[in-house]
Design goal:
Elements lengths: L6 E5 L4 H10 L1 E10 L5 E5 L2 E5 L3 E10 L6 E8 L5 E8 L5 E8 L2 E3 L11 E9 L9 E9 L4 E11 L8 E4 L6 E3 L2 E3 L1 E9 L30 E9 L8 E8 L3 E3 L1
Parallel strand pairs: 2-8, 10-17
Antiparallel strand pairs: 1-8, 1-19, 2-5, 3-4, 3-6, 6-7, 8-9, 10-13, 11-12, 11-16, 14-15, 17-18
């Protein structure tokens, strides 16, 4: 059984040949990707394979399991070492090959990745989970995605995700891809940066106002996909200020792959 919110996927159509081959050799590749955002280590047991997930760590690995001696199922469990609480427990068969499990543990809750929008040519799609771990900011925020023209110091807003609650996945914002190569702006040669700005909801005021931390558009960098390539991604990131300048660290990101749930 999988606890609520954990996503178990099997790679679809494009991997059919791979699945057929795996059936012939009686192997089940299990990919586990996610983040242990808790304060304690977790233990993973996949058949006879065991490993640990340290607190605050992202992980992405694949382990192949062979079906020998007439075994037809394999069990995967993730357990909190401190109290023995089972956070995930699921059984798979060779029909599930190759399997992918997304596991995110935050604030004592288990979840998977949110549904990720399909990739479209010429577009970049992005959503976020913003974790104000230092400021403890509790109000909703707007995340504005902008072009920053460096020489004239001009900010051009391209789109905004409104009323994003801390520690909750945001909606997805879609933008056209664009070049960040040096270019002319009002007759001046300038470089272009892709930036995300975090405002107090419904305003153009940085949420850090009054917190003792400042925002510097050149060094305060929210994790983002490449501006030039079509993609669809979700980022989980948290506050890691340097001195009194706010900065962020990405804990996890996921890119789209065609999948179907089982």
């Amino acid at each position: 059984m999988i606890l609520a919110g954990v996503c178990l996927y099997v790679l679809a159509g494009c991997n059919k040949r791979e699945s057929d081959l795996l059936h012939e050799v009686n192997v089940l590749p299990v990919s586990l990707k996610g983040f242990n955002g808790g304060g304690r280590p977790l233990s993973v047991a996949l058949d006879t394979f065991k490993t640990a997930l340290p607190p605050g760590s992202a992980f992405d690995f694949t382990q192949a399991v062979s079906f020998l001696n007439n075994h037809t199922t394999v069990n995967l469990s993730i357990t909190d070492d401190a109290d023995g609480k089972v956070l995930l427990d699921t059984t798979m068969t060779q029909a599930d090959a190759p399997a992918r499990i997304n596991f995110v543990y935050l604030d004592g809750k288990v979840s998977g990745f949110p549904k990720v929008a399909p990739v479209e040519s010429g577009k970049l799609k992005v959503s976020f989970m913003f974790r104000p771990t230092v400021t403890k900011y509790s109000g909703p925020v707007d995340i504005a995605l902008v072009k920053y023209y460096v020489t004239p110091k001009v900010i051009e807003e391209m789109g905004r995700i409104r009323n994003v609650r801390p520690n909750v996945y945001s909606e997805t914002l879609a933008l056209p891809t664009f070049s960040t190569a040096p270019q002319l702006y009002n007759g001046q040669q300038t470089t272009v940066s892709f930036r995300a700005l975090i405002y107090k909801a419904g305003t153009n005021e940085y949420y850090t106002e009054g917190s003792g931390y400042t925002w510097n558009i050149t060094t305060t960098s929210v994790p983002l996909p490449s501006a030039t390539a079509s993609s669809s991604k979700v980022f989980i990131f948290y506050e890691t200020p340097s001195g009194n300048t706010m900065r962020y660290t990405k804990t996890l990101n996921s890119k789209i792959c065609e999948q179907r749930s089982i």
